[in-house]
Design goal:
- It contains two helices and eight strands.
- With 140 residues, the protein is an alpha/beta fold.
- The protein folds into two domains: 6-70, Signal recognition particle alu RNA binding heterodimer, srp9/1; 82-137, Signal recognition particle alu RNA binding heterodimer, srp9/1 (2-Layer Sandwich), CATH 3.30.720.
- The strands form two sheets. It has a four-stranded mixed beta sheet, with helices on one face.
- α1 (14-25) runs antiparallel to α2 (90-101).
- The relative contact order is 0.19.
Length: 140
């Protein structure tokens, strides 16, 4: 059996993303370690400008975990992956959408009623993470 989870990589702003996801989804921070805290445990160089960046963290949203950290690499590609958020109520989806939409890089599809859900939409948040939201799927 495989366990598959999302691992989000940020460009130096993982801490801000965690705070935004705590506000939008009520996420809980389960674990966080900076590069500086791991300095003596890894076999690769950690430069002074990396010390405060998040090397690894885990957040929980409604019992599901997402791992995230800051990447020292400058070329991070993520346009081929979305995080799908589903709820049986529109209130939770609307709240998360409203918070992430505020500084979103792109609104791919406005949050609206569709033939398959009371609300559905997708956006790329200010950190470049793609999110798809679906509330109250309509059973056919």
């Amino acid at each position: 059996m495989f366990t598959i989870e999302h691992y989000l990589m940020f460009k130096g702003n993982c801490n801000q993303a965690i705070e935004l996801y705590k506000e939008a989804f009520g996420a809980k921070l389960l674990y966080k370690q900076t590069y500086g805290e791991a300095k003596n445990m890894v076999n690769f160089p950690i430069y002074p400008e990396m010390e405060e960046l998040v090397m690894h963290s885990t957040i929980e949203i409604d019992g599901r975990t997402i791992m995230c950290g800051d990447s020292p690499d400058t070329n991070i590609s993520g346009s081929n992956m979305n995080i799908s958020v589903e709820s049986d109520t529109t209130d939770k989806i609307q709240k998360a959408w409203d918070i992430l939409k505020q500084e979103a890089q792109n609104i791919n599809m406005e949050l609206n009623q569709t033939f398959f859900a009371k609300l559905h939409g997708s956006l790329k948040d200010k950190f470049g993470i793609n999110w798809t939201f679906t509330a109250e799927q309509i059973k056919h």
